[in-house]
Structures are given as structure tokens and as C-alpha cells.
Amino acid sequence: MKTAIVTDSTAYIPQELRDSLNIYMIPLSVIIGGETYQEEVDITASQFYEEVRSQDKLPTTSQPPIGQFVELFEKLSKEYDAVISIHLSSGISGTYQGAVQAGDMVNGIDVHTFDSEISCMVQGFYAIEAAKLANEGKDVKEIMTALHDKKTTTRAYFMVDDLSHLQRGGRLSSAQAFIGSLLQVKPLLHFVDKVIVPFEKIRTRKKALKRIENMLEEDVKKGYFLQASIIHANREEEAKQWKAELEAKFPEVEFTISYFGPVIGTHLGEGSMGMGWSKKVAM
């Protein structure tokens, strides 16, 4: 059985890596000043942050139309027996449900959907490992089991400069825990039950990053071979410096740098920073 791996643009997997692993991508869109752009296709992350600074109103985002999924799945049916479609958390977007509905509409190929319950490169970790397993000839059941197992070791935390973007976008649950105490606080957030919730209130950016680092260290001590990604919203130099410090401290961890692209960046705001990690399965 030949299995195709599909994900969406919010995984922010570099195109050259997608191409080398045969990962297919469905883009979400961002609307800026009345113009619609498919992220990772029509607009890059750096272009997005530059454009947003010149706008009076915040951008908005939209999920892919179901027809885009149907078209891709039908195309894949000519070459593959099955599809595993891996998407950002269903608690913050309808993209996953769109893939489910499209899968029911297509004949000639078995579509299996996977809710990553997260986003960005941590979502990308699932797609990358699924693709490696598919390229090794593993069947759908083996790949889906590996993805579910991976969830047990996946963690991600991120810091925003303030909560205004998330509050206005309706992507933050339990926001009341922070309202009235945002001054000089760097809210640390994470995903719980598919939605974004506050984790801790921390006074400075430096302390927030240190707190994330300490939580990574807890998992390193468990003896897992971890892959970790530092994720930033237009703060590449800061991300590079943090990566160098982390690599010196945790040589056994495989670190990469990724970014909050236009869709996720719309809801987090420029300057956000985070890190996610999980046990690496496919080598």
C-alpha cells in the first residue's frame, strides 16, 4: 500500500524538506487590507510582518475551502492507495474538519485524518515522521499508531508580548486568568484539550524562555532522544542565539529553528517566541 502524507501550511515545513519527503501541503490564508494571501504560497513570514506594520487593522485568517482538499485527494488517488492528512488543532481552526469532510467525498482512496492538537513546527514533526515512515513502506495503521504514540511525549510552550491578538481573535481560552494583570507580564501559554490556555504568568521575557528551557531539561532527563524546534515571530537573531545556548547545554537534543507564519502570527503577534519538542521516532 502506498500512502501519501498531507499537512497544512501552519506546520511551516520548509518547501525543500516537503519536496524531499513527498509531503503535500494545503495552505491557509491571511487577509490583509482586503487582500487574500495563501501563506507559504503568496506571502512569506517576513513579508507578512512588514506588511502588517503598515496596516491600521489587524489581519484576519481563513481555513482552506473543502474543495481544495477534494481536488488534492482526487489527484493523489491516481498514485496512492491512502492519505494521512495531518492538521493544526481542531480547537483553533476548522481545517481538520474540512479534511474529514473532504475525505468522505472522495472515492478511490482511503483518507485518514490526524488532529495534531497543536500547530507550527511541532505539527510539522508529525508530518515529517509520518512521511519518513511512509517512505519506508510502513502501512497506515503503523504510521497512525506512531503518531498517536508521539503525542504522549509532545510538549510546546510559547510566550506572547501581550494577549490582545489572541483575545480579539477568539483563540485563547481562560483569558480571564490574565486580564487586569498584563502590565510587564509575559504570558506563557500552551495547548490543553486542543485549545490555547494560560500556563504561567512570568515577569520578563528572559525568565519566560528560561522556564521553557527548564521544562525541556525535565524531559531530557527521561532519556528520550528529543527533537526540538525554537519558533519565533520575526525574531530570528534571538532564536539563533537561544539555539546556540541550548545546543551547548543539551547536545543530545536535535534543535531546529522555525517561525510563526502569517496565519499563526496573526493571532500571536510579532515578537512571540516558543519551543516545542517530542521524542523522535523515525530517523
TrEMBL record:
Highest taxon of the lineage: Bacteria
Cited InterPro entries: DegV, DegV_C, DegV_domain_contain
Pfam family name, one: DegV
Keywords: Lipid-binding
UniProt KW Disulfide bond keyword: no
PROSITE patterns: DEGV
Keyword Glycosyltransferase (UniProt): no
Residue ranges crossing the lipid bilayer per the database entry: none
NCBIfam families tied to this protein: DegV (TIGR00762)
Protein name: DegV family protein
Species assigned in the record: Bacillus seohaeanensis
Record lineage: Bacteria, Bacillati, Bacillota, Bacilli, Bacillales
